[in-house]
Structure formats: structure tokens, C-alpha cells
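Hi L.,

You mentioned the student needs an example of a multi-chain input paired with its predicted structure. This one should do, with 226 residues in total across all chains.
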Amino acid sequence: MVQTASSAHDTVESPDLEAIDIATVLHALSDPMRLEIVRQLGGCNETDELTCGQLELPVAKSTASHHLKTLTAAGVIAEREEGTRKHLRPRRAELERRFPGLIDSVLRATNSG
Amino acid sequence: MVQTASSAHDTVESPDLEAIDIATVLHALSDPMRLEIVRQLGGCNETDELTCGQLELPVAKSTASHHLKTLTAAGVIAEREEGTRKHLRPRRAELERRFPGLIDSVLRATNSG
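Structure written out for the whole complex:
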């Protein structure tokens, strides 16, 4: 797949699985709005994606964008740009391999809390 | 047991189980030094305790004290004062009831990372 220079520039890099740090992941998950993003993406499979516009968040677009960058940089979600649209997917299966049980227990806590 | 006014004053209150918030717990766990404290206390049962002096931490006493307060206020550990000594215990079984699987997955990640 050919990736244009502009899309590579605009997209936050999500780290390789082995480079994902537990403290960084926990920090990314420690904000109510970021937990809500992960909860909404939680229904997606690894191969399903949501666009930013499909997320229902009660915050300004710039604030949502900041939270998405934090989650992406920590390795919790991955972003893919297609034209002007950002497609988001959870890295659930990968995180499950790296930190077994973590993301499921957080999603359970978020859904029940 | 009679508790003196001074010991009640010096001890940080740990919240009731129902009041423990997932984002606050994740934030308390999102620091490498606090993860290390939880790891060292992880070997304790609910009824076992460590004193502050038994923790092996490469930071100043005041820094360790700050981290312990953050963990206690979030409900991750409980402190009990006896004379001039603080006794610490993990609230592992209680957290397991409130957020099933969370603390175990974090301890596993911390031990393997």
C-alpha cells in the first residue's frame, strides 16, 4: 500500500507491541473521557473501525483529538487516515497478548461503573 | 481499640469500596514507583502488612510518602498507624470484588514487564 507523505505526517504513530509500557497504558486509561472512548471502541473488533465523527463525546473536537492522540501514543488504539477522515480501532487483541486480562477488566469496570 | 486523635489525624482515609472510582484507581497505578509499591505489597495477604520501612524504594522518604497517600486515597492500599509506624496493606480482595481481574492483571504486567 502506498502511503502519502501528508497522511504519514498527520497520523500519530502507535508503538510496537513490545514497546508498550504498562504505566503509560494505565495513564492513558486514567481519564473518564478516554475511558469512554475505549468503551465506545470496545464494541469494535480489531478489524472494525469507527471514524472520529462516529464517537459520541460531550467535548470539543480539539479536546477529543487530544485524548485520541494520548490513547494512540500509549498503544491503546490505532489511527488510520483516509483522506480527511480518521479511522480508529482498539488494539484489544494485541494488548491482551501483552497484558493479559487488563483491557477486559477495565472495560468491565467502565461498563459497570 | 482506642485510637488517639493524633493517629486519626495523620492517617489518610481510604475510601469505602463502593466509592472507589476506576479512573482514580488507574491514575494511582499509572506511575512506575507506585506500581513498584503495589508489587512489593502484592505478596501480602489482606491480613498481612508491611511497614513503610520494609518497602525498598529508591526515592526520598517524602516522595515515598506522597505516593503512599495517592494509593491510599484511591483505595488501592490501606494505611494503619501504630505509634510512629505506618502499617500498609493492599486492598486486593476488596478491589477484586469491585473491579474483577484488574489488580491481578496489573500485578502480572508489572512482574513480567
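You could point out the following to them. The CA atoms of residues 16 and 108 of chain A lie 25 Å apart. The beta strands of chain A are 50-51, 77-82, 85-90.

Best wishes,
N.
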